[in-house]
Amino acid sequence: MNQFLMAAAGLLLLLPGQAFADSDKILPYPIYQHRLDNGLNVVTVPFDSPGLASFYIVTRVGARNEVEEGVTGFAHFFEHMMFRGTDQYSKAEYAAALKSTGAAANANTSQDRTEYHMTGNAEKLELMFELEADRFQNLNYSEHDFKTEAGAVKGEYTKNFASPYSRINEKLLETAFTTHTYGHTTMGYFDDIVDMPNQFEYSKKFFDRYYRPEYNTILVVGDVTPEQVNALAEKYFGDWQRGSYESVVPVEPGQTETRFVHLQDGSIPPYFSLSYKGPAFSDEEIDMPALDVLSSIVFSPTSDLYKKLVLEEQKVRFIGGGAFDSRDPNLFTIQVSMVDKADIGYVRGEIEKAIEKLQQDGVDEAQLQRTKSYLKNNFAMAMDTPDAIAGSLSHYIQLTGDPESINRLYRLYDQVSQADIRAMAQKYFQSQRMTIATITEDQKGPFE
Amino acid sequence: MKIPSRTIVALAALLLASIPVTSPASEVVELKLQNSNKIVFKVQFSNGSIADPAGQQGLTYATALMMAQGGAGGMSYAAIQDRLYPWAANYSVQVDKQVVTFTFQAPAAYAAEFYPIVKSVLLTPNFDEQDFSRIQKQQQNYVDQVVRASSDEDYSKFALEHLLFRGGNMAHLTAGTSAAVQAMSLDDVRQHYQRAFTRNNVKLGIAGNYSDEMLKQFKTDMGELPDTEFALPQPSKANTPEGIEVEIIAKEGAFGSAIFTGAPLGITRRDDEFAALMIANSWMGEHRKSYSRLYQKIRETRSMNYGDYSYIEWYSNGGLFQLPPSGVPRSSNYWAIWIRPVQIANQLKAQYPELADIAIGHAHFALRLAIREFDLLIENGLGKEDFEATRTFLRSYTKLYAQSPEQQLGWLMDSRFYGREDWLSELDSLLASATLEDVNAAIRKHWQTDNMFVTIVTDVSEAQGLAGSLIGNAPSPMSYSDLVKSGLPQEVLDEDDAVATYPLNVRKVTIVDSKDTFR
After folding, report:
1. Is 60 exceeded by the pLDDT of residue A114?
2. What are phi and psi of A426, to 5 degrees?
3. What is the pLDDT of residue B16?
4. Domain layout of chain B by residue ranges
5. Most CB within 10 Å of its CB: which of A158, A217, A228, B47?
6. With contact defined as beta carbons under 8 Å apart, do B49 and B95 qualify?
């Protein structure tokens, strides 16, 4: 018996997930939450990072909220505008003040949220609070600055759309969603981006609607105390006025037949994806945790499918799959990059066979336990900087508004059973819920 | 862009001197972190793609990937991955021009079970045919398709490096050239492992919560790497262009013009004055920072693109990383400007009727603007206030480079490459003691814009007009939409006029078909 086999035998004696604390909370650090009278939630996680802290503001507005005609991409565009100054700090003064923090600072937007983040010297925390509070409450930019910034968004679109994968994603979303705002990308449609300079008045309305305490959460992780953070939050955000706007996002009707979308592009290897309509994120229902476990078992690099198609037969360059965490039901997507387009039908058939097997037989119990162990250890391994912890909590804040969702989710992972996985495979992997996207050098898609 | 023939590469390789690498296998960078829940091993070989034998560009890359993504110790790659899976342990390799770095990470609780895999990957890789077939195909695909199609920005960056080092061993992609990858055999890989992944050119690192016994075992075992006396070739120096030499890569369906420009730089982190030049560079073009000069002028004021930055050393995966990653130390250096994709004429015409008559897009203007900013800095020097603000910023910001145990270890190991114990802490002292005079002296000594290489990846429709404009030093007035132009202050319009006719020392412009690059 070689050393690996001996060690592998030893592995059977280990219990999964025992590498890290056995507490019922996956995050081994307490999460302190304090809600101001105006509804703003303030979250603090002290972490042993001497002199270092991450300061995040999670604004729960993203492409999902772009319900009006002609304003796709606006949440993202507005994120850019947040760097364009206030009465107290002109854009130049803001830039100088930001530089003086010595922090790594930036922002980004996704379907469900806009996230502003800084990681830097914990001694500069009050300045970070002051700068953020000022622009979140008193943003004031000129019409010219507004028009000018639209060009930067166009530049971002231009760089992104060099990639055929970005182009097919835009087509996939608009085909899979006929009604819900997940039907457009966070970047928005190019025509809407070109028209952005004309939306100055709408931008004022946008700020008035969403840059309000009830849409935002402050999150600080690192060499800080909750008392310190809460006091700064009261001082700088205590007077922030609540708003009244409630975003009504249209509901996507059920899909009744397979849809197809194709991009003709021979510059990259042949590619296809199968996207099934999946659930919304929930830290109470078993659906999403079961799908997460399932995707790790069936579509990750340790899956049978990957071993067969990528490692043994070598017909596939890459295969992966998973559900997209979001507030409303979104897609479970399996993506495949092919070696040769002649095998595309065979590979799709193999994926569908794996899904059928899942629907009939479920998964192996030992593999289920190993996957639960993987999920926990993988999370714990990644939580080694204030920014990593804040980034992770921000993800769950965008979904539910509550950072404790992370602990509830991992408790649900522990409860996922073979029966749950089989049930979810039957519930979600149905051909009428699917949109197939393809990229090949041919004018017509291979499955149409 | 054309690849030099194999003969020229072979001749160039023959002309290069060899430096015997004598570092003992026992050189270990240790970083014990008792509170950490993980263990990190790093193994860095002094080889990199410059160690590729003549005509075998990409062999070091293939060998490293065969170790990191193939079977080892008699176990298949799939079996290894199965074993690591419940622990979420992982390992990967990063191949750069002068080093190859393996990184292994596992929960500390599983360190003992994980370690035999670390050892096998490094000492007893399987090097079997099935793994080789897969890895070679992936590598071939990368150099043939992915590098051209996935990001025009990275494409122009790699193309610039190819132009800067053309004819030398630093020129080619670490993944190699199309022809060389195709010609590679498994025997080549086996031989290259024995030759270039040895106990005599390795540096070890360990971080996190590890025992003394583990450290001892690691040191002892790595002494079993091949005992070949590896002669690492000297990295080729960047070519000095004659005037400004531009290579335009014409690509079907490009949305914009992605621009990189650069010139040789004689210093690295090994030199104390590098810190002074860092201050100047940070002020001019700190990576992904909105308050730097280029960003303010090109993006913030004129809305021409997504961002504009400058560099005094290689920055890996700039589109992805906000902070610089470790594992890419280099002694052969150059400085560069990254102008993210700007609009081409066809796009502007389609968007704005008032621009129906323009001949070219924004690339010529953007290049002029960036180079003019460097000229102004070289001529006028950095001001006292900007110097103080930028130095203060950097003394805080550079502390963010090494936050996680893996990052801390990586930066420490790179320090040794430059003959330093701990670059980031030494850098802080150098920044603290730097004076404005030091910075301005470094600017004048190391930056010039008369002789530069420029690469532009752009659409086929744009290439010819842009080439003509550049070689003719033709005026390139900024073409704003009326919406933006109407609100611009007079000082910006005046500056635009100065930029539009700013003379660049362009001596040579060539247009290359995208299909002919990296062959």
Report:
1. yes
2. -70, -35
3. 34
4. 17-233, 244-516
5. B47
6. yes
CATH 2.40.50.140 for domain B244-516: no
Task: Determine the 3-state secondary structure of B429 from DSSP.
Answer: helix
Smallest Cα distance from B340 to chain A, Å: 7
Residues of B in contact with A16 (CB under 8 A): 86
User: Which CATH superfamily includes the segment(s) B17-233?
Assistant: Metalloenzyme, LuxS/M16 peptidase-like (3.30.830.10)
Instruction: Name the minimum distance, in Å, from the CA of B109 to any CA of chain A.
Output: 5
- State the smallest CA–CA distance between residue A190 and chain B in angstroms: 10
A27 close contact with B: CB closer than 8 A: no
CB-CB under 8 Å, B83 with A7: yes
Would you kindly state where each structural domain of chain A is located, as residue ranges?
32-237, 259-440
**In the CATH scheme, what architecture does the domain A32-237 have?**
2-Layer Sandwich (3.30)
First vs last C-alpha separation in chain A: 52
pLDDT digits (tens, 9 = 90+) for B453-507: 999 999 999 999 999 999 999 999 999 999 899 999 999 999 999 999 999 999 9
Q: Which CATH superfamily is domain A259-440 in?
A: Metalloenzyme, LuxS/M16 peptidase-like (3.30.830.10)
Backbone phi, psi, residue A391, to 5°: -60, -40
**pLDDT tens, A45-95?**
999 999 999 999 999 999 999 999 999 999 999 999 999 999 999 988 999
Query: Nearest chain B Cα to A368, which residue?
Result: B86
Substitution target in B69, B81, B87, B139 with the highest count of A β-carbons within 10 Å is B87
Residue in chain B closest to A387 (alpha carbons) equals B403
Q: Which residues of B touch A265 (CB under 8 A)?
A: 149
Which residue, B204, B262, B258, is CA-closest to B238?
A: B262
Enter the tokens of residue B48.
């990199």
User: Distance (Å, rounded) from C-alpha A73 to C-alpha A71?
Assistant: 6
Encoding tokens for residue A72? Answer: 């796709």
Q: Is residue A226 within 8 angstroms of chain B, CB to CB?
A: no
Cβ–Cβ below 8 Å for A2 and B73: yes
Range 384-443 of B in CB contact (< 8 A) with A: 389-390, 392-397, 399-400, 403-405
Spatial distance between the Cα atoms of A165 and B432, rounded to a whole number of angstroms: 46
Strands B244-251 and B202-208: unpaired
